[in-house]
Specification:
With 223 residues, this protein is an alpha/beta fold. The protein is 42% helix and 23% strand.
Length: 223
């Protein structure tokens, strides 16, 4: 049986907020990259989110830098307003497709009428940033830190133990000094037990994130 070749585009775009990066984000970005040679990711600015009445735990710079450090992402830009920007970016970067989650299906079909190749991808069910915020309210928070690449298997074993208790919420902090790879992110994505992943330069950044998450948990309990 002859296997049909899957069309691979040259340049493609996708957009999102990517707050509190989780395996749903990772999964859709990996699938985007599998379909193109060059992947350009637009990260929503804080002002744009405010206009949509959306508040992020992480700043636009933190979210931008995280996506920029994913080795399979070729270029990162800021998203200011999809109404005009998407069509302009499509022409500017000579893109052949824009990928977007199927939760927006039907909303953006006018772009197809304008000649844009808009491709809807299945969202990962059961996980979103909103779901994460709810989990933080209800669960015990565990921080795992990866400083070296050879810690991956050991961390994975610890994750399996911690995850036996479904009341636990797992945060993975990966040191930026690690030479990350497509395979490493595929590994973390495949086990689907990490609730939130972020990169850090130093322990101060890890402590700051701990404070933000604990504050979110306290505020949720107060509300």
């Amino acid at each position: 049986m002859i296997k049909k070749d899957i069309k691979k585009y040259n340049v493609c775009l996708t957009y999102g907020t990517f707050d509190m990066f989780h395996f749903g984000h990772l999964s859709i970005l990996l699938r985007c990259k599998e379909k193109c040679n060059k992947l350009i990711v637009g990260v929503a600015t804080d002002d744009y989110n405010k206009n949509k009445q959306k508040e992020s735990i992480q700043s636009q710079q933190q979210r931008f830098n995280f996506i920029k450090n994913l080795h399979f992402v070729d270029k990162v830009i800021y998203e200011h307003n999809f109404n005009i920007q998407w069509a302009n970016d499509y022409k500017k970067y000579r893109a052949e497709a824009i990928f977007i989650g199927d939760d927006h299906k039907g909303e953006l079909d006018y772009l197809i009428e304008d000649g844009i190749n808009l491709i809807y991808l299945d969202r990962t069910k059961g996980i979103s940033t909103s779901d994460i915020k709810k989990k933080i309210k209800q669960k015990n928070i565990f921080f795992l830190i990866q400083n070296k690449l050879d810690q991956t298997e050991e961390l994975f074993q610890n994750i399996k133990k911690i995850n036996l208790n479904k009341d636990n919420f797992l945060v993975l902090a990966i040191n930026k000094k690690i030479e990350t790879s497509f395979q490493l992110y595929q590994f973390w994505n495949s086990n689907k037990k990490i609730d939130f992943i972020f990169l850090f330069n130093n322990t101060q950044e890890v402590n700051q994130m701990k404070k933000r998450i604990n504050l979110l948990k306290i505020n949720n309990l107060i509300n």
